Amino acid sequence: MTASAQTAVLPGRQGAVGRLSDLFWRKPGLLLFLMLTPPLLWLGIVYVGSLLALLLQSFFSIDEFSGLINYEFTLVTYGQLLQPANFDIILRTLLMAAAVTLASAAIAFPIAYYAARFAKGKWKAVFYLGIMLPLWSSYLVKVYAWKLILAKEGILTWLFAKLYLTWLLDGLLAIPVIGGNSLSISYIGTFIVFVYVWLPFMILPVQAALERVPGNLVEASGDLGADPRQTFRYVLFPLALPGIVAGSIFTFSLTMGDYIIPQIVGTSRLFIGQAVYAQQGTAGNIPLAAAFSVVPIVIMGLYLALAKRLGAFDAL
């Protein structure tokens, strides 16, 4: 061995810290294992463990006479989800989640398109600031603020009156099912607040997807004789679809699981989140609450599988 080769191999460092550092340098897989073990244990025990415990509870039932949990495997609790009152809660939640997702996508697309195509320099920073700023304020403060805005004596009613559009507001509130005495106690109000709160989660993925669309594709579409509607339908929308689906993952799942917004703004009819809270709280029916909780998990599992096939994860 030459002298240069001998000097290239440094002697091991002394002390416990030095020897430990040399060990990690020789075996990087050991360092990776030690770094990942604590968070994986936390994820496995606290998160996955709680989901498994929840799933297990859903296969138990409540004794009708004593009110105690009967720890015997049964599907009776899942059968209760098909009762008209409980099935209406599931259907109501799904329809609201779908409506919020579609409305968020419709509002988010032009905003995201402007940011991706025309906002440059400081204006793009202003765009990001405007989108992220609502997320910095308290969730409860925003919801209660909207309750005041949508109230019968709120600023929105005052604005309709000033514009002589009270007849339009009264017509909306007179619509069966979704109407009410005021926007703050109607499904329309619940829908408005859901869209406002979750809209940033739709705008950002759509904007990221549109950023990846080459500008020359839009120009080529115009050069080939396509009008703006055809360009949107055959060029922009297919390429932005992964971003829309990625944003819908947030808006759909967050709407399905939320119970605070319907509790503060809306009617007395329950959504899944409220049903879970009521069943595990005042009613004390843990198995039924667990069965209700499994519903959005199953739906979102199927939805995520579809979203993955559509390439939505590439836009996150």
UniProtKB/TrEMBL annotation:
Residues annotated as transmembrane: 30-56, 89-113, 125-144, 156-179, 185-210, 231-252, 286-306
Primary location group: membrane
Domain (ABC transmembrane type-1) ranges: 90-307
Family as reported in the entry's similarity comment: Belongs to the binding-protein-dependent transport system permease family. CysTW subfamily.
Record key words, sorted: Cell membrane, Membrane, Transmembrane, Transmembrane helix, Transport
Cited PANTHER family: INNER MEMBRANE ABC TRANSPORTER PERMEASE PROTEIN YDCU-RELATED (PTHR42929:SF1), INNER MEMBRANE ABC TRANSPORTER PERMEASE PROTEIN YDCU-RELATED-RELATED (PTHR42929)
Stored Pfam families: BPD_transp_1
Protein name: ABC transporter permease
Location(s) in or outside the cell: Cell membrane
UniProt entry tagged with the keyword Transmembrane helix: yes
CDD domains to which the protein is assigned, alphabetical: TM_PBP2 (cd06261)
Membrane topology reported for the UniProt record: Multi-pass membrane protein
InterPro entries recorded: MetI-like (IPR000515), MetI-like_sf (IPR035906)
Coiled coil among keywords: no
